[in-house]
Amino acid sequence: MATVNSDLARVRAQATFDPLLLTHFIYDGPEKTKRKRFLQNLALKDFKEQKFRRSAELSREEQYEEALRKCTFTVRRINELGLKDPTELYLFREVLFPSEPSPFGLHESMFIPTIDKQGTDEQRAKWLPVAKRFGIIGTYAQTELGHGTFLRGLETTATYDPRAKEFIINSPTVTSAKFWPGGLGKTSNFVVLMAKLTSNGRDCGMQPFLVQIRDLETHQPLPGVSVGDIGQKFGYGAMDNGFLKFNNIRIPRENMLMRYSQVLEDGTFVSPKNDRLLYGSMTLIRSQIVGGCGRSLAKAVTIAVRYSAVRRQSEISAGAGEVQVIDFQTQQHRLFTLVASAYALIVAGQVSTQAYLSVTKQIESGDFDNLPVLHALSSAIKAFSSWEMMYGIEQCRLACGGHGYILASGLPKIYTNEVPACTYEGENVVLCLQTARFLIKSYNAAEKGEQLPSLARFLQAPKGEKSRLTENLELDQLIAAYEHRAARQVQEANARLQSHLSRGVGAAEAWNRSSQSLVEAVVAFSHAFIVRAFIEKVTSARLDPSLSAVLVQLCQLYALQGIASNSGQFLKGGYLSDQQLLVVENKLYELLAALRPNAVALVDAFDFPDQVLDSDLGRYDGNVYEALMEYATRSKLNKTQVHEGFQKYQKPFVDFLKSQAATQSKL
Amino acid sequence: MATVNSDLARVRAQATFDPLLLTHFIYDGPEKTKRKRFLQNLALKDFKEQKFRRSAELSREEQYEEALRKCTFTVRRINELGLKDPTELYLFREVLFPSEPSPFGLHESMFIPTIDKQGTDEQRAKWLPVAKRFGIIGTYAQTELGHGTFLRGLETTATYDPRAKEFIINSPTVTSAKFWPGGLGKTSNFVVLMAKLTSNGRDCGMQPFLVQIRDLETHQPLPGVSVGDIGQKFGYGAMDNGFLKFNNIRIPRENMLMRYSQVLEDGTFVSPKNDRLLYGSMTLIRSQIVGGCGRSLAKAVTIAVRYSAVRRQSEISAGAGEVQVIDFQTQQHRLFTLVASAYALIVAGQVSTQAYLSVTKQIESGDFDNLPVLHALSSAIKAFSSWEMMYGIEQCRLACGGHGYILASGLPKIYTNEVPACTYEGENVVLCLQTARFLIKSYNAAEKGEQLPSLARFLQAPKGEKSRLTENLELDQLIAAYEHRAARQVQEANARLQSHLSRGVGAAEAWNRSSQSLVEAVVAFSHAFIVRAFIEKVTSARLDPSLSAVLVQLCQLYALQGIASNSGQFLKGGYLSDQQLLVVENKLYELLAALRPNAVALVDAFDFPDQVLDSDLGRYDGNVYEALMEYATRSKLNKTQVHEGFQKYQKPFVDFLKSQAATQSKL
């Protein structure tokens, strides 16, 4: 298996640009690319030396145990290497946990950051050092069996007892059990608990508490604590998502995280002054999810494109022999549009993270003006990109035919472990409706002649214009088309809302009755942002002309595909003519053919090591069939030639039917 | 848990029609409904008495063993009961194998039928009785590691040796290994093997052979046979999909299935007279898949609708308390459109199966005229319905938020075990392109003034008309809109094809360059068929007016949703005006609200026992939270309070970091 599959090698060699230049574009220059490769190679070496096992061969329970082995190893290794930069940590871990969660994930991403942001200086000094050296291991326990999105609906109670200076933590109902937090089931001995605080008989809303749930030495659950794993899931086999119930346990007053709200010793509740800062970290996380979705889609499409160059199936011209499936236009349409999407989402993640950083600076200087628009934007594109990723990964799996269905393809794992992005950190529909509030407010402000923040300014665009898009596929005209469509969809959703209001429907119900069209308006808004971000990033970067030409084609393909598949929203009002739509479709097909020689180079440029793809179909060397057969032979059912079920069930059954037939034939 | 959740009960009670009447509509009358319930209750009792285990709690290996136990039990039970009718068998098995495959599945659906249809009378007499009493257990081995769709590409060889009067069966390459057949890995001792026949040095094409692969007593693989399970997959844990390689093994001449092609003793190859009959069974299977996709979607949407009545989350009016999520328009949009799809696909399956039966009668009397159109239609709607199902089940899962992700929801199992319908029995894109050939041929025949078969007649419809659809949502206008759109899409695809041809592109390549638009035309064609089938079935049935009113609403919703989400194809050429599209959207939202009281009754009417749904979220009694918590506590990771990984990995790791910190603080 040392040589590269010749069909794959030939397509690879046809590229009109140097994929390394594109890798530099993605990873922010040659230096960072070099560093990325250095770190990922270190992690690769570790993975091999430690003989970590492939999750496609493990049971769910084995996956958890292996993940525990990996995450304890990884933390020590990261400490040794002194890695601190978030991007470097991400890239290092990506190799050891390829599309897989870590039981320590929530400790690092939520438990420590919540203490850091919501603890007082005293609390931070007490808990952060011990948490950082895993002296306590925690997770973030908010979601309950009966409650998710709606924070105020949580039922877990924290009642202050001023005599003992303690909180009493309780789970009063079945539905109040904490359910889902990652790392909760078996790994954590602490949680940041969101609970409904009552002090001096007063409802003080949801507050965060540090609660110990297991003994630090024996790891046994503490008295009054019932905790465990929630069982098998669609994916996330490596993660011990857990449940947690409290039977009136007591924690000291000092364990409420009191940077914002406080309970004084006598039980007096002190409200926070400003909680807008909380939005900031959600915004950052959502921007990161956007890029992460792009990266997950990039993995899936790397697998599918490489396999499509290796796989030969059916003839185009009868008798001319089976062709590489990448030569079928339908396959190109399925995959190349997803290559474009992956790039678009990765770029959008970068652009929105940049926007977050610049708005953060404004906030630090006391300027909160851009926070709402940034928050609205990050919510919307998180929803948009996770939906695109979800759809796209499954298309990649289907594009691999039957072989996409075996775990060795890597695609089921990518799908099942990445698709929760549609639900976590804000359920997508809920997020869209948050952004819709912002858009409707902005739209009405614009109607009144107010100036909008730059990201929403296109809502002021004139409504009656016609597109000037020609077969040259002018990039500014593509942006204009998307912004026109978004403005129009917002306008229509607003009209629907106003029409309900004008017929006397109450505000809340009118909003509900308009909500589907509001969601569609937010999708159009997100799409417009991403098209603009992608085009602006590509046209503003200093790129070799050979690379620039291909990236412009990708921008065009991304934009055309979105127009073709939502054509009604562009045709409405005659903005785009039938003739222009025909041009869009024809050019779309031409772009597929034009990108064909660059398809493998475009996915190679994502620079995923084979270990990260974890796919027998997506191997860089294209030796897919040998790898698949090797995977098959290692199936646990092949431990014996004859499965024990044969003696237990099949043979007695066959013998019974045989003797029955013999008896009947005698009768 | 004896009482029904009050929120669910309340919605159930709001229905404006009797769901039992709708159940009769689905299951073809009160008598058959009674029989259906009788049989499913028997199977339910069996399932409980035998203490069969739930797959959501089993490892993949346990799933296979449990499935073997179940299928041996089920065959004996079916024999006892004397069940023979395919529908009755389907309904009985549905309870014992809820959305799960059986290791005997291919024996019954492919191995026996292939011997039956392709064996000579002598072969049938010899093999069928023994196969039917499982004296031999087989599967159908066609797909190879490197070859799927393209039959002529298969590499397994069968070389006739006239001296020994035997065939030599061989797997000459890595890619020639049979790969994927269900039941092959561990269960089967025989296969019907598709292999490339050579006789007297002549290539005689692909032929079917009966090949023994395991000893009938010991079940050990025979010499020269390498066989095993292929490992873990996205779903299908209960199925031992297998690989199979031959090293020049010999089988007697009599083991070639010779009803059509024959090899005489001296090696003379005799070609078949007419192989069109083969299309017939594929057509039936594909029609059945259509109904099966409807049924799978129906299961998913039953779960999601019931759970949406139980689940309360977020407020519509601030302070008014959390509402049932079914009250959110976005949730209604997601789910009610899928309820409509499920009904539409179930009906389409019935209609196309009926069409198959009547065409079969024509064929038996020597009339093959309608076979091509039926074949084209069944291919197209198989593709269309499996795509709709795939999309729809995942929407149902997302509609259940986080809880949709746990295996106890039942939704991941339904998805992963049903989605292979997009790939098996003809990969969807390949099927669409087969149908496209028929459509283009028909279109050009119509252009020449030839009369088309009735199912394709709308391709002759005038192209320039305008829709007369009003806010009364006339059913004939909805059908007309879909047929106009389909005709237009076929016309456009044909124009694209002709344009390539007229510019000198070769026929094969011109076809390829038009293939994406051809696929889209086939989708439009399928959609039109389903809309018409649904509407005609509903309007022609004798129904209680209370039921008829709701079913007409479902037809309208199905049609409107398709227009709204493909609006560009209806707006093109001004067929539908912007104003009409606005009406479509407004009416769509009105229908969602109108269907809200009937939502639970509409899914209850599918009449799935809880056991078939196999879902803690979709329970008829709505006691979802108790069930989920019970599932969680049974997680294998909860066998001990402290997982063994704690002592093995976590504690040493924590101790190490602690001692390291102690050392550092001393320095």
TrEMBL record, chains A, B:
Active site: E425
SUPFAM superfamilies: Acyl-CoA dehydrogenase C-terminal domain-like, Acyl-CoA dehydrogenase NM domain-like
Keywords: ATP-binding, FAD, Fatty acid metabolism, Flavoprotein, Lipid metabolism, Nucleotide-binding, Oxidoreductase, Peroxisome
Domain Acyl-CoA oxidase C-terminal: 475-654
Co-factor(s): FAD
Pfam families, per the entry: ACOX, ACOX_C_alpha1, Acyl-CoA_ox_N
Binding residues annotated for FAD, in chain numbering: T143, G182
Pathway annotation from the record: Lipid metabolism; peroxisomal fatty acid beta-oxidation
Keyword Oxidoreductase: yes
GO cellular component terms, semicolon-separated: peroxisome
GO molecular function, one term: ATP binding
Top-level taxon in the UniProt lineage: Eukaryota
Family: Belongs to the acyl-CoA oxidase family.
Protein name per UniProt: Acyl-coenzyme A oxidase
Source organism (scientific name): Candidula unifasciata
Lineage of the organism: Eukaryota, Metazoa, Spiralia, Lophotrochozoa, Mollusca
